[in-house]
Amino acid sequence: MRLCEFSKKEVINVSDCKCLGCVCDLKFDECSGQICAMIIKGPPKWFHLVGCDTEYVIDWKKIVRIGPDVILVDICAEKCLRKL
Question: Name one Pfam family in it (predicted).
Answer without folding.
Answer: PRC
